[in-house]
Amino acid sequence: MNSVQIYSPDKFGFYQFENYFNFNDEVFSKIDTKKEPNIPLKDLYELRCRQIRNSYDYVVLFYSGGADSHNILMNWLNSGCKLDEVATIWSYDATRDKDSYSDAEQSHVAIPLIKELQKTHNFNFRLIDLYLFLR
């Protein structure tokens, strides 16, 4: 399998003429998105977890409890790669209501699941209160 290399010095993209946002278009335009990769998605997730793990001394996954972050968390743990920390952001100090629109998913999904996963997986958990952080 060929790996995609981002050659731009600004791998996070940049603005061009008339506010066109170029997000590594030169690299991604060469990929045929209509052709399925010849490797299962699960293996691609594991490969990416290993690439990240091998590139950094300390890996933090921001987890909201939503479907996307849950998928990444579970694939990371199933890959066997060490995950150093899981962090969840909420704004409880501002609302004092764990059932508020902004905190319900964290209160009822993210935090309970993380506490359960910590029984079988070794990672730190950090709960970041956005309200306190922005003060």
Description:
The chain is α/β, with parallel strands linked by helices and 135 residues long. The chain is globular. The chain has helices at 25-28, 41-55, 67-79, 92-95, 104-117, 130-134; strands at residues 14-15, 21-22, 60-62, 85-90, 124-129. The chain is built from six helices and five strands, in the order ββααβαβααβα. Helix 2 (41-55) packs across helix 3 (67-79). The mean pLDDT is 84.
Itemize the secondary structure elements and their pairings.
Elements (H helix, E strand, L loop, with lengths): L13 E2 L5 E2 L2 H4 L12 H15 L4 E3 L4 H13 L5 E6 L1 H4 L8 H14 L6 E6 H5 L1
Parallel strand pairs: 3-4, 4-5
Antiparallel strand pairs: 1-2
Helix pairs in contact: 2-3
Q: What distance separates the N and C termini?
A: 47 Å
Helix content: 40-55%
Strand residue percentage: 5-15%
Placed side by side, the strands forming the largest sheet appear as 3-4-5
Record field, number of beta strands: 5
Order of helices and strands: EEHHEHEHHEH
Characterize the biggest β-sheet: 3 strands, parallel
What average pLDDT do the residues reach? 84
Oligomer state of the chains in this structure: single chain
The Rg value, from CA coordinates, equals 18 Å
Give the low-confidence spans.
Answer: none
Helix/strand-derived category reads alpha/beta
Overall geometric form: globular
Number of helices: 6
Short précis:
With 135 residues, this protein is α/β, with parallel strands linked by helices. The protein is 41% helix and 14% strand. The termini are far apart.
